[in-house]
């Protein structure tokens, strides 16, 4: 294979005995898209997945040795991200001394601050979150240095685990993958020091998401499966809610990586086990601060819709999006998923509408998400892709809603 994405697409196409036009026809794309991919242009992950599927290859094979997609431009948080970088990656050398706390760290107060900052993440208060996290990291580090033994040491580590979990989620959300990786590495180390299986599994789950953001689908799926195997309950009927929720989420991470890599049998196998975990819970369960996940039948149903979206089965997406387990009545009975998980589900719905030429419906879905989570939506490349598709595919003049949504996302 070649050294980059373009070479790989070309090599696999030639191995199949196809011209660029024949590959484009098999994939349902235009020949210009295939040419762009082979010339090393910036190709969307969705397009790469479609090309791999047409060639009968895993998506990862086309990406071997290819550079990462460029991260979207930041939204003015550059200086705050730099402060986070300094807090996570302080200078190390002979003359660098770690500061001693001015007073005895109060762990109960620090834990409560960490909880409040975590709520800022789920409340999409990203500006406040980026401003608060550097100091919180330093205070958590200082507490761990201060308490070097005894129960206070374990409590200090547990507080820092919660801090790193929030940091990693935020940094993954804003596509700062290198810093998210460092946060997860430190979360994993603290979880191991505590002997906490759930904390280690939480770090691994976050790492799977980072790997997917880097296009490393096979590695993500493998890590997720290994994690699920490690924490599988001996007896499902005796497992606690947190344990079942984390086990189920590990399987959903495996589904996400496998289906993006065209490994549909592996994805279905993991999906069956996720359904098993959700069935044992019987409802959406919001885990404790330790596990930090919400999982249940609604979450699994959203994952099933996501699989259909990735496969390009848009009619199934729309048929299932608001029915049965995902219907409003069922969600009132079973419980609500995490808001961000629900919004990602609605992005799948918007994409299905757009691909079927239902441009106004796609736009209205995005507008609804924007009303509820504008900060979250502003970081979603998928939203920009949907609106770009609307602008390109619209034959008539754009509606006011389309212009509004396009302006918000920077799509012209």
UniProtKB/TrEMBL annotation:
Coiled coil: none annotated. Gene3D superfamilies: lambda repressor-like DNA-binding domains. InterPro entries: Cro/C1-type_HTH, Lambda_DNA-bd_dom_sf. Residues 12-62 form the HTH cro/C1-type domain. Pfam families: HTH_3. One of its GO terms (molecular function) is DNA binding. This is HTH cro/C1-type domain-containing protein.
């Amino acid at each position: 294979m070649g050294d980059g994405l373009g070479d790989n697409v070309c090599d696999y196409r030639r191995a199949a005995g196809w011209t660029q036009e024949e590959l484009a026809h098999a994939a349902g794309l235009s020949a210009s898209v295939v040419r762009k991919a082979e010339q090393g242009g910036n190709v969307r992950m969705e397009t790469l997945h479609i090309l791999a599927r047409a060639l009968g290859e895993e998506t990862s094979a086309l990406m071997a040795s290819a550079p990462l997609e460029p991260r979207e431009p930041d939204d003015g948080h550059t200086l705050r991200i730099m402060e986070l970088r300094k807090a996570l990656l302080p200078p190390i050398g002979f003359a660098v001394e770690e500061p001693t706390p001015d007073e005895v760290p109060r762990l109960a107060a620090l834990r409560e601050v960490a909880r409040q900052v975590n709520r800022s993440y789920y409340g999409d208060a990203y500006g406040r979150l980026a401003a608060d996290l550097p100091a919180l990291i330093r205070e958590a580090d200082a507490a761990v240095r201060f308490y070097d033994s005894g129960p206070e040491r374990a409590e200090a580590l547990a507080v820092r685990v919660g801090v790193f979990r929030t940091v990693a989620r935020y940094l993954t959300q804003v596509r700062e993958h290198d810093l998210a990786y460092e946060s997860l590495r430190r979360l994993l180390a603290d979880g191991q020091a505590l002997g906490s299986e759930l904390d280690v599994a939480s770090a691994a789950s976050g790492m799977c998401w980072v790997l997917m953001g880097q296009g490393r689908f096979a590695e993500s799926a493998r890590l997720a499966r290994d994690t699920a195997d490690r924490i599988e309950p001996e007896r499902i009927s005796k497992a606690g809610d947190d344990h079942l929720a984390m086990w189920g989420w590990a399987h959903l991470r495996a589904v996400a990586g496998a289906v993006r890599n065209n490994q549909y049998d592996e994805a279905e196998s993991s999906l069956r086990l996720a359904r098993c975990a959700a069935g044992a819970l019987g409802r959406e369960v919001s885990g404790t601060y330790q596990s930090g996940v919400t999982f249940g039948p609604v979450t699994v149903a959203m994952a099933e819709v996501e699989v259909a979206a990735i496969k390009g089965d848009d009619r199934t997406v729309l048929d299932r999006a608001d029915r049965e387990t995902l219907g409003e009545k069922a969600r009132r009975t079973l419980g609500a998923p995490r808001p961000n998980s629900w919004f990602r589900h609605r992005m799948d719905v918007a994409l299905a509408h757009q691909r079927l030429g239902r441009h106004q419906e796609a736009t209205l879905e995005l507008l609804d998400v924007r009303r509820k989570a504008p900060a979250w939506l502003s970081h979603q490349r998928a939203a920009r892709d949907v609106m770009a598709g609307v602008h390109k595919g619209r034959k008539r003049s754009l509606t006011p809603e389309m212009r509004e949504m396009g302006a918000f996302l920077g799509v012209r």
